[in-house]
Structure formats: structure tokens, C-alpha cells
Design goal:
single chain; mainly beta; 15 strands; 2% helix; 52% strand; elongated
Amino acid sequence: MFGIQFEMNWDRSVFAIENITSSILPGFSPDSHVNIGDGTAKVVWDDAMLSGVELNSNQPLLTLHLSRLSEGASGFELEAPVMAGAGGNLGLIQPASIYLRPDGTARSALSGAIKSIELHGSQVRLLVDTKEGQHYQLQATQDLENPNWQSLIELEGNSAWQEVILHAEASSAFLRLVPIETVIR
């Protein structure tokens, strides 16, 4: 690999990135190759010597040093990542998201508006991605061939991922989160 570029976004009220380091990228410097903002970070690195780096899938490319600011979970989104190698562009990497749990563990998030679904005893916990100023309806149906979507809840969009808690019987249904138009009177 000769270069990498991407942007990361997360809920700034849940954690902050203190630093990003690398033990395998030659010449990598957090001061030169990383720009950390409020809930966002950009990383751009290229091998100035053009000798390239052989990647090992068992070794981390970058290490993120985080500080938790509050309890709760946050989405952690990787946007528009690009890697360049000896043959040129190695292709656009699929944007990804992870779900950072309050206990510090993480798991891959789902694509779409519903990012995570977990069953905890008698509750189903969803993590949903919404846009501020937009209203949404969480809907469920028992049959996808002949769907009869029933509204479970309505929620107002937020710039951060939101947690929605349902009763466990909702886990036997198909779920979707759809934007709705609000009526101003």
C-alpha cells in the first residue's frame, strides 16, 4: 500500500478521539496526517519514499486512542475510504460503521437506517441513524410477501444515532425505519 485517505464520524457527546497512531506506516505522524475535529477526524497518508507497505491482516493499520465522555453507545462511521497500491487505486472501500457499546466493546453495524438490533431479556434494542429536523416512523410487519406495515413509534431525527427500546415480541417481526412528512398547521 502506498497511501490511504478517509474520514470518520461519531457522536461527540459519547467519546472523543485523543490521538491516532500507527506502528506500520512509515513516517506516519498524527500532527501531519491526522486532523481531529469535534465528532470527526480525517486521515491522509502516503509513503513519501514510494517503497510501499506490505499489509498484514493481523496487525492494525491505525490505533485510535479514545476518551469516553458519557454513558451510551455511538455509531462510528468510516466514510469514503480510499487505498492506493502499486497498481494504482486499490478501489473504494465500502463505507463502514461500528456500534461502540457502553462497556467499550464494539461490533459491526448494519447498513441502512437501523444500525444495530440486540435482544436483551424482554427488550429489543435498536440503534437507528436519523437526520436532524426529519421525523421517522418505526414500522413492523409479520409478512414480507404481503406486508401490512404497522407503526410502532414515531421519533424525531437527531444528528447522533439514537437507541430505541421495544418489547421482545417485536423481535419476531420485520422492522423498518421510514421518514415521514410532518404537517405544519
